[in-house]
Amino acid sequence: MGEQIIGIDLGTTNSEVAIFEDGQPVVLKHNNSALFPSYVAMDQGGKLLVGEAARNQYPVYPERTVKSVKRLMGSGEKVTMAGREYAPREISAIILKSLKQRAEHYLGAVVTKAVITVPAYFSDVQRLSTKEAGEIAGFAEIKMINEPTAAALAYEGKHDEGKTIMVYDLGGGTFDVSVVRMEDGVIEVIASHGNNRLGGDDFDQMIVEHVYDAIREEHGEFALSPEGAARITRAAEQAKFALSDNPFAEIKEEYLFEQKGVPVHLSLEISRKTYEEMISPLIDETIGAIHTALKSADLTVSDIEEILLVGGSTRTPLVQQYIEDEFSVQPRSEVNPDLCVASGAAIQAGMLSGEDVAAVLVDITPYTFGTSTLHIDDNIMSFTEIYVPLIRKNSPIPVKKSEVFYTLHDNQESVKIKVFQGEESVPEDNIKLGEFVISGLSRVPEGSEIVTTFELDTNGILHVTATEKCTGKSKQISIDNATGRFTEEDMDRAKGKIVQLFGEEDGVTAEQEGKDPARNIPADVQKLLKKAENLLDDAEPEDKEELIELIEEISDAFREKDSDKLAQAVDDLKEIVFYMES
Ligand code: AMP
After folding, report:
1. Residue-range domain boundaries for the chain
2. Is the separation of the CB atoms in 155 and 308 below 8 Å?
3. Of 109, 204, 261, 301, which is most buried by a Cβ count within 10 Å?
4. What is the tens place of the pLDDT at every residue in 287-342?
5. What is the reported pTM?
6. Going by CA atoms, what residue is nearest to atom 8 of ligand 1?
């Protein structure tokens, strides 16, 4: 095998490195994290710090630390780190070299070839500057591809059929949207627009301001040390993560500062609703950019067949909601949005090495799961039951999502939680998987918060929990095999069932053989088998197992022409069918 080519996503906030291995891209990790913060710093002893270590030092020694250097690539501006000037490409080279080392460590070999991604809007000068950074880092051969192209590759791999898609990329500090045409194995960025000063950091900042307001309200004007400010910024980001999956988040920081010699602790709850009100103007801005990109591609919303989500901030539910409202299609988010571009770069590297490539394989749920709630129309004072999806189809599993619901009456004693699978807006049009009641609620006015959590594990088991927020009282049910995935056993049974139903075996169909073995089964046995089949859907698991076994046994007995076995199995099946019908 030739020398390995690596794929690098050189990002504004985070960078990643990936290789192509066993037909799949693998994003390389260090200390269990694939993200390499795009920070470079000099510590007080003059030692170079990169990645996480540099990011940690930033709040305390900002003058010794460089971040977001990607924004300055090709600008001619210089950055200062610990009193010395550097060209942006020199800082980028340090990041690239660190990633190169990560790959070399993993592979146990020297690496000199890389695919490096750049934003679609990068000018020739910016591209050249990136290429030079790669050369400084020690790469002899560099291929550059556009980030949306990499994202499209990660989702689609090899693609033959033509389609027009949109790549919506909202990272930590930048936002890009690209219209991409895929046809005959060629991926072309038709138009691109964005804002390289808009991203998840701004969302964090909104929460930080909210926290400052809350402190001010309680303690008046206050002064924070740089460490204190950094702790609030970190806590804000953590709260943001929590709000992507939960309706509330706690922000707790002890000994934040002292006021008149007394330590001040922070404890604040923020709801998703409040958070969404804060960030909605920012998301509106991204929707505006979508329209600008569409306009320059001479297309409209309805020309876009798919929307791919890229960048960590697209995990924000409101972002997905706005896009879905705009396009009336659910955006695709199954490929990890932080690692998508690096994975695509590795796929391109694999292609350059002549490897056979496919799209990134991810374990996803094929179904949407949700619950129902009453919608009150104040104008006509009527209630309608509406479906509220919590886990959307194509979400990577495991996945856990929570929503808050409210009691309708004062002193309401109980609530019923129904669990559905499906996409229909009328709950009962979906498949009902189960329901449970949580009773003995506290005697409080209407509007008491009930937090409902849906958790789907890797075995396809759905756990649904409802919790009364004011007391923590909760109840749970688990639904087995919610994703309907077949175990090996199920698979064998299903195969047996097909054999029995179609009289088909070893790939040779009855038609090919010119006879229909099912016809040899006496009519009364056929009738019995049909009855048993019909009972399968509603049968308890144990009965179901027995039914399937007997159906298979009858089918075996016919094939083996074993009349004793057949008589016994038919008798047993008659008995269980009789028992179930009565
Ligand atoms: P990227 O530049 O693609 O690595 O994206 C980084 C940004 O994504 C940062 O602002 C993160 O705080 C943000 N991010 C990562 N995970 C989540 C999440 N679960 N919910 C909201 N934002 C997130």
Report:
1. 1-158+335-358+487-519, 200-278, 369-477, 521-582
2. yes
3. 204
4. 999 999 999 899 999 999 999 999 999 999 999 999 999 999 999 999 999 999 99
5. 0.75
6. 312
